[in-house]
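Students often ask why we bother encoding 3D structure as a string. The short answer is that it lets us treat folding as translation between two languages. Here is a chain of 190 residues written in the first language.
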Amino acid sequence: MRIPRIYTDSALTEGGTAALDDNAAQHVGRVLRMQPGQELLLFNGDGNDYPATISSASKKNVEVQVGTPEANTTESPLEIVLGQTLSKGDRMDYAVQKAVEMGVTRIVPLSTERCDVKLKGDREDKRLRHWQSVAISAAEQCGRARVPEILPVMTVSQWLEHSRDCEVRLVLHHRTEHALKSIIPPNASP
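And here it is in the second language, the structure alphabet:
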């Protein structure tokens, strides 16, 4: 049986105990129906995976005994920030999931001139929390050591200003004449 990989935002220490947060505890206790003595793998975004053994489990609370951390070397050395235009329905969820799987570091939802989706106030906060949970689930599934940050919604001009210090900035277009593979990063040797 596959060992479940679970994200926690708690600090993890070797030999210590940790209580899983509500979402993780519900997933482990209710969905997976794991019992004391079973193993799982925890990560908290610090670059390590932590083998753990469940010491107590109920439907709402799960406590684990944390083992020796293991370095997770699956992260890309590149810092990739994706500006993604807001999409209707679950297409934005899909874009976030695939971006996490491809190694993106941060995701910026973009509100564009012709974008049908408009988010403000509480609705924006709710969507950002939802997309962050999608990113967490995708990181759990694909084995990433870090969960990408979902930044607040920006306009394209705000995003370009925000990313001014980036070494390479690309705007992708489906009708371009240049292939992505033809671009050589500035510090790469030809």
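Translate back mentally: Strands lie at 5-7, 17-19, 39-43, 48-57, 62-66, 70-71, 81-85, 106-111, 149-150, 154-155. Keep this in mind for the problem set.
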